């Protein structure tokens, strides 16, 4: 699944140690807002798991991003909680017209070659 929008909040980094493996872990949560949905924008809180991915994505407040994510649910004490975990984050590039870059003209259509034959040829039907 994908969500496109602007990062409106960067939540505090969480760290810990796995009870089963003893390995350290890090998770960072972000809130993204889809301003294209009009008067009532949609918001989503998602997480990035792992110090390497947090550093790789380098998400900053105010960035326009396309976030690819998976949704999963976990049960704890007879309650269910959704987890939205990003696996790919891409910056949204501004439109060339908005940045002032010249837009190349469309390529001309190739000339049709139906006139290349004999003008006396008739259709076979």
Descriptive notes:
With 125 residues, the protein is mostly beta strands. The chain contains two helices and six strands; from the N terminus they run ββββαββα. Strands 1, 2, 3, 4, 5 and 6 form a six-stranded antiparallel sheet that branches. Strand 3 and strand 4 form a beta hairpin. The longest helix is centred in the middle third of the chain and has 7 residues. It starts with a strand and ends in a 26-residue tail after the last helix. The mean pLDDT is 84.
DSSP strand (E) fraction? Answer: over 45%
How is the main sheet built? 6 strands, antiparallel
Helix % is under 10%
Q: Write the H/E string, N to C.
A: EEEEHEEH
- Structural class of the secondary elements? mainly beta
Assembly state: single chain
Which whole number gives the mean pLDDT?
84
Per DSSP, the total helix count is 2
State Rg. 26 Å
- Unreliable stretches (pLDDT < 50, length at least 5) are none
In whole angstroms, the N-to-C terminal distance is: 52 Å
Count of distinct strands: 6
Morphology: elongated
List keywords for this structure.
mainly beta; 6 strands
Summarize the structure.
With 125 residues, this protein is mainly beta. The chain has helices spanning 51-57, 96-99; strands spanning 2-10, 14-17, 24-34, 42-49, 64-76, 79-91.
Helix/strand layout:
Elements: E1 2-10, E2 14-17, E3 24-34, E4 42-49, H1 51-57, E5 64-76, E6 79-91, H2 96-99
Antiparallel strand pairs: 1-3, 1-5, 2-3, 3-4, 5-6
């Amino acid at each position: 699944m994908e969500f496109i929008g602007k990062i409106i909040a960067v939540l505090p980094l969480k760290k810990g140690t796995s009870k089963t493996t003893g390995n350290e872990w890090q998770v960072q949560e972000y809130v993204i807002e889809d301003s294209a949905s009009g008067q009532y924008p949609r918001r989503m809180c998602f997480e990035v798991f792992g110090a390497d991915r947090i550093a790789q994505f380098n998400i900053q407040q105010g960035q326009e991003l396309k976030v690819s994510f998976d949704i999963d649910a976990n049960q704890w004490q007879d309650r269910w909680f959704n987890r939205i975990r990003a696996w790919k984050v891409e910056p949204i590039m501004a439109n060339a017209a908005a940045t002032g870059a010249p837009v190349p003209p469309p390529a001309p259509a190739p000339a049709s070659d139906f006139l290349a034959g004999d003008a006396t040829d008739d259709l076979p039907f």
